[in-house]
Amino acid sequence: MTPTLVRHHRYADSTATVDAGTRARDWAEIQERMLAPLYEAVFERLEVGAGTRMLSLGCGSGLALLIAASRGAHVTGCDTDRERLALARERFASGAGQEPAGTAPRVRARLVDDVPSAAAPAGEAPYDLLTAFDPIGCAAGDCDGLAPALTSAVPLAARGATVVLTGWGPPERCATAPVLRVAARLAESSRTARSGSGWRPPLRDDLEEVAARAGLKPDGSGRVSCPFGYADLDSAVRGLLSTGLFDAAIRATDRSQAEKEVAEALHPHLRPDGTVWMPNVFRYLVCVT
């Protein structure tokens, strides 16, 4: 069954084109699974199931869509990262969401080109769940970019629909924070680095501020443990660079320099068996339209 995937801008505008195809594959194969506990916790709290019609902003390579679809939800995903979107299509085309043999197929998804085209066709119910699982709060400008994204998506949802925003937890609860500071230091070390680019510490009210800008009413929140675990140092470096949080640093220096300094910053988290382990906490905010 074909997934519903819609092109949509990422929250922080990035012009970096660093090994786009390889980076997207690293995200899908290494990094995206680190957020699976966040997806699962949200879907469990909201009892996502067969009656759910979900629109996911910044869907990446589609792991959250797959999890929701496995619970019976009708899913739509939006992302302008063409490489990640292509990988999401591959995941669904490989058999995810297929109906059992001998049963009539159910239409759960449509493939459209833009957000207005994602509106539910006549006779179908509008979305009752909007998600923004691309965590905000660590890239300058991502909060500013998410509010307009929500503004364009909310009209496609039913009145009183649920909206879920996600972000990084407090730096003191995220072992990855010191590693991410490398991104800020490298970007600031170059006069060519753009003002406002790169990593910045998450703020306590990032999610609430975005909700207020988008006219949403908070209706609960939670924190989820999302440890970052990697098979080896190389995987850890590739996974972290795939997040996009190091784009400004790579523009300011080069990929080799960024890889070297990230690897050095990861050494305190390197275990005797060669694996890398960093406990982190992520936040989510449940809102209503």
UniProtKB/TrEMBL annotation:
Gene source species: Streptomyces clavifer
InterPro entries: Methyltransf_25 (IPR041698), SAM-dependent_MTases_sf (IPR029063)
Keyword Methyltransferase: yes
Example GO BP: methylation
Stated name of the protein: SAM-dependent methyltransferase
Coiled coil: none
Keywords: Methyltransferase, Transferase
Pfam family, one: Methyltransf_25
Domain Methyltransferase: start-end pairs: 55-94
Superkingdom of the source species: Bacteria
GO molecular function, one term: methyltransferase activity
